[in-house]
Amino acid sequence: MKRILLIEDNEQLRENTVDILSIAGYNVLTADNGKTGVEMILQHQPDLVICDIMMPVLDGFGVLQLMQQHEAVKDTPFIFLTAKTERADFRKGMGMGADDYITKPFTGTELWDAIASRLRKAAIKNQQFPPNLQGLNKLMYEATGKESLKALAEGRNIDKYKKKQAIYTEGNHPSRLFFVQKGKVKTCKSNDLGKELVTELYSDGDFLGYTALLEGSIYKDSAVAMEDTEIAVIPLKDFEELLHNNYEVALQFIRMLAKNVASREQQLLGLAYNSLRKKVAEALLNLHKKYNPKNEPPFIVKISRENLANIAGTATESLIRTLSDFRDEKLIDIKEGAVIILDEKKLANMIY
C-alpha cells in the first residue's frame, strides 16, 4: 500500500482529502503545517507528498526546498495543492522541482489521476531496465500500461527478406523502425578489406534500427537477415510520436543507450585482448543466451561458421580449429552443422 503525506492547514479540506485518498486504497498521513510536514517526511519517507502552498509556520515552497536538501527524500514525488492560480506561483513551484500542481476545488478523479501518474513515473525512474530490447519492451509496458512498441507493429506492412539480404546498410539515413516478426537478423560492420564484425543479434519480437533514429544520424552498421525473415516496418513519425508523448520513456532510452555503449566498449576490449579460445567460448555462450533465454537443454547453436567467426572476431579457419579442440575436450559436439554445448560451466569458466 502506497503511503501519502498530506500537508494542509484547512481542517475540513484535510479531512475530505483523506477520505478521497483512503477510498483509493492509499495509506494517508497528515500534517497541519509545513514544519510538522517536513518532520513527518524525514521520519516516514512517504511515497508521495501533497502539500498546500499558503500555510503557517512554513509554506509549501519551504517544505519542498527542505526536502531537496535530504538525500533520502529529495526525489519523492511532490504535488502542490493550492487555491492560488497565479502563473508566477505555478512557475515558481515547478521550477523548484514540484512534479504537479492541483488547483482547488478539485474532484476525486483529478486527484487520483495525478497521484497515479506521479507514482507510475517514479517507479519507472527507479527501475533498472536491461540494456537490450527485452528491457526496451518492458520499459514501454511500464510507462504506458501496454506493449506500445509491439502495438506499433500490428497491422503494418510485412517485408520478407531472404538469407543474406540487407535490411538496411551502413551510411544510409534512417526513416523507419524495424520489428522482427519472424527470423534472425545480425547487425555488422566491415572494414575496407571486407572483414566483418557482428555487433548485435536479433530474433522474433526484437526491434532494430532505433539507435540511429534516436541519434538523428546515419546507420553505423548494416542489418542482414541470417535466414528467411519477416520484418514489420514502422514509420519514423509514429515512433517519434510515442517518444514525444512520454518524457520518462525518452529518458530511459537515453540511459539504455548509454549502457549499450559500455557493453560495446567491453566487447571491443575482449576482441583486442582475449585469447582465441576465450573469444569463441564467449561467442557460443552469447548465442546460447540470445536464442535460448529459458536455458532449456539441449543447448544447440545453429549458425554458419562464417557468422560465428564474425561474432567471435576471428578468422573462419581459426574458429573451425578451436571448435574442433572444444569437441575433443568434450565441451561441445557438432552434428549436421549445429554446435551442441555439452559443458556450459567449463565454457563460462574460460570467460570469467
Write the layout of secondary structure elements.
Blueprint: E1 3-7, H1 11-23, E2 27-31, H2 34-44, E3 48-52, H3 60-67, E4 78-82, H4 87-96, E5 100-103, H5 108-126, H6 133-144, H7 148-153, E6 158-161, E7 166-168, E8 176-182, E9 185-190, E10 196-202, E11 207-208, H8 210-215, E12 222-225, E13 229-235, H9 236-244, H10 247-273, H11 276-291, E14 299-301, H12 305-312, H13 316-328, E15 332-335, E16 338-341, H14 344-351
Parallel strand pairs: 1-2, 1-3, 3-4, 4-5
Antiparallel strand pairs: 6-13, 7-12, 8-11, 8-13, 9-10, 9-12, 14-16, 15-16
Structure description:
Helix content is 47%, strand content 21%. The protein is an alpha/beta fold. The strands form four sheets. Strands 2-1-3-4-5 form a five-stranded parallel sheet, sandwiched between helices. Strands 6-13-8-11 form a four-stranded antiparallel sheet. Strand 4, helix 4 and strand 5 (100-103) form a beta-alpha-beta unit. Helix 6 packs antiparallel against helix 10 and helix 12 (305-312) packs across helix 13 (316-328). The model has no long low-confidence stretch (mean pLDDT 82).
